[in-house]
């Protein structure tokens, strides 16, 4: 069906970094390209000439440029900090980086659980080394393999039936095996899989480009983990290509920018309060500090993968609920809510019951 066709926007933006400028230079209207990328203009309604030019710019075939089955889109995970600040791109690559103890492998196991809930086949490409939490990732995945050939064969056997979420260690990037896997899948005509990469040696955080091109980068913050704020994903420095080219709703982008700005200011003020006390803040800075504190606490969340350890049921929060809650915090509707009531919970609304003490 023609309405099932989509541009492989992830591939296009990876290979043509400044897409708008390149498209204009090639004789295309930027609005035309933007509408195709966002899905506003169906691929089936596009001129063949336009698609050929885009394929030439990306150095790919039309079969690679046009994919069936939903194309590039945000994968909603129900994890507030990810969906709000660093959305996962369908068919893209996610890189996780942080210091030891910041919860990267817990996040990987959690993503496996949540992707399975969305109907994905979850595959774990097991690394040679050992790390605390590797076993939990393996248990959470549908299938686990140690060899490139096994991974490729399994993906090929299920990819036409459903999307695949692949988890792997950074070693497959450094060894070239991930590139080899992608080449093999491309040659077989298999659509891109969504891939999450982690570093069990905790060296990626010190590298400028630890994984090569990424669609989503999740930076883990040891300060958040030290204060028990999990997931310890840094909402200021974690990023996604979904934020570029109007691939997200304008309201989401605007709200995200407001939230990042507040959290940056809050971090600056934390240092001041730690050194001189809350009383030195101006009235406006005091408001920013208190709202930033509430937003930071709200972004913590119970995971399904840790229920046995925390005795707290995992929470799935829809993107719309997250946007609504963040807006309320930014606008001051939760100024009266105690910070401790926002810590390690799901939706904000359940703590806003009139008359609750």
TrEMBL record:
<keyword id="KW-0472">Membrane</keyword>
<keyword id="KW-0406">Ion transport</keyword>
<keyword id="KW-0066">ATP synthesis</keyword>
<dbReference type="InterPro" id="IPR020003">
    <property type="entry name" value="ATPase_a/bsu_AS"/>
</dbReference>
<dbReference type="InterPro" id="IPR050053">
    <property type="entry name" value="ATPase_alpha/beta_chains"/>
</dbReference>
<keyword id="KW-0139">CF(1)</keyword>
<protein>
    <submittedName>
        <fullName>ATP synthase subunit beta</fullName>
    </submittedName>
</protein>
<keyword id="KW-0813">Transport</keyword>
<keyword id="KW-0067">ATP-binding</keyword>
<keyword id="KW-0547">Nucleotide-binding</keyword>
<comment type="similarity">
    <text>Belongs to the ATPase alpha/beta chains family.</text>
</comment>
């Amino acid at each position: 069906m023609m309405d099932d066709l989509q541009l492989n926007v992830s591939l296009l933006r990876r290979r043509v970094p400044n897409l708008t400028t390149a498209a204009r230079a090639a004789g295309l209207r930027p609005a035309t390209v933007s509408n195709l990328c966002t899905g506003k203009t169906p691929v089936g309604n596009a001129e063949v000439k336009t698609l050929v030019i885009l394929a030439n710019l990306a150095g790919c075939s039309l079969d690679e440029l046009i994919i069936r089955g939903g194309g590039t889109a945000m994968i909603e995970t129900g994890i507030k900090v990810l969906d709000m600040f660093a959305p996962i791109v369908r068919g893209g690559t996610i890189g996780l980086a942080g210091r030891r103890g910041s919860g990267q492998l817990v996040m990987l196991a959690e993503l496996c659980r949540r992707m399975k809930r969305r109907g994905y086949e979850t595959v774990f490409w097991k690394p040679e080394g050992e790390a605390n939490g590797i076993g939990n990732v393996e248990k959470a995945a549908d299938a686990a393999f140690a060899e490139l050939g096994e991974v490729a064969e399994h993906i090929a056997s299920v990819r036409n039936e459903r999307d695949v979420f692949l988890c792997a260690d950074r070693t497959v990037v450094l060894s070239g095996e991930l590139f080899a896997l992608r080449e093999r899948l491309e040659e077989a005509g298999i659509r891109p899989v969504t891939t999450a990469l982690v570093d069990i040696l905790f060296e990626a955080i010190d590298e400028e480009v630890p994984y090569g091109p990424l669609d989503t980068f999740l930076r883990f913050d040891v300060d958040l983990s030290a204060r028990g704020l999990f997931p310890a994903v840094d909402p200021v420095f974690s990023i996604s290509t979904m934020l570029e080219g109007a691939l997200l709703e304008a309201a989401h982008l605007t709200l995200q920018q407001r939230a990042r700005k507040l959290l940056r200011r809050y971090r600056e003020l934390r240092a001041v309060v730690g050194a001189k006390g809350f009383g030195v803040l101006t009235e406006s800075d005091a408001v920013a500090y208190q709202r930033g504190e509430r937003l930071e606490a709200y972004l913590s969340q119970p995971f399904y993968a840790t229920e046995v350890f925390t005795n707290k049921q995992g929470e799935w929060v829809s993107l719309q609920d997250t946007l609504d809650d963040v807006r309320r915090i930014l606008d001051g509707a939760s100024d009266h809510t105690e910070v401790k009531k926002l810590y390690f919970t799901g939706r904000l609304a359940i703590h806003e019951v009139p008359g609750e003490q």
